[in-house]
Amino acid sequence: MDSFYSRCGFxxxxxxxxxxxxxxxEDRELCSSSWFKYLxxxxxxxxxxxxxxxxxxxxxxxxxxxxxxxxKCANINEVPNCGYCSGFPCEDSSNISFDADKRKKIxxxxxxxxxENDYLKYVESYExxxxxHGIRASISEDDIIEMKTFSAAPKTAAFPEKISGTxxxxxxxxxxxxxxxxxxxxxxxxxxxxxLGKRRxxxxxxxxxxxxxxxxxxxxxxYLLVDSETYSKQKIISYHHVVLEYFSILSKSGVVCKIIxxxxxxxxxxxxxxxxxxxxxxxxxxxxxxxxEMIILLKDYxxxxxxxxxxxxxxYFSRADMNVFM
Length: 326
Hints:
The chain is an alpha+beta fold. The protein is 43% helix and 9% strand. A four-stranded antiparallel β-sheet has the order 3-4-6-5. Strands 1-2 form a two-stranded antiparallel ribbon. The longest helix is centred in the middle third of the chain and has 24 residues, at 190-213. The termini are far apart.
């Protein structure tokens, strides 16, 4: 079989789940057990998809595990794969690719070397960025297609400059800026636009939760505190590593969040936050006086929105609509 690649650079021809490689029950059992052995996730043999390869056009109704953001981006840009895109390498094509250390990490965990054939089939197949660099080196500059760019800047309400009180207006303008600029990019890839479009609502829901439900605490500093039960009701993703990613993004906007464990069982074995056993804190990265003032205003803002709009309050918060202060 000739080598060919997915949009993100995966080697479809070597992948154990590609339709030409997944024909018998033995093929399925081997793929299932090997993915679990080397990569740590299990799909039952009967649940495996005989993947058509994501380069297969939509009109042919391909069998795919997911129609991922990178595939959609490549289709929008009309490139065979990301190696032909002027924006390569980008964050999203890199994020889903195994790096050069993946084999070493697996072997350290196993305690012995991987057989070369297993490495090629279950690890090297997914070293997408490496393959894409090889593809890029094999084509001419004339083959590279200019990437289409997209805005991931949400629509926001204009800030009402007539709010009375210079100090209050300035602090509200800072909160307005945090909400309006959060995870906002004016020129980016289509893949990143899709990512930000899903992530930003969760970040805003997190902020709004603190404003509406947070208890102001002054023990060891001033911050807002919510319990795990309150968080669980917000329908925000609860995988610990994703929550930490959200915290990292918020920190760039001057919002500092932490998880405060209350016992040893606050995480599930798979790294999810349990419904009890922890709390979450939030403060603004300002001096103590300004932090307190902004906390008070955030809570006042959330309360005013909820009083005015009820269950639709988050929609107004997401647009940084501060007309409730007029």
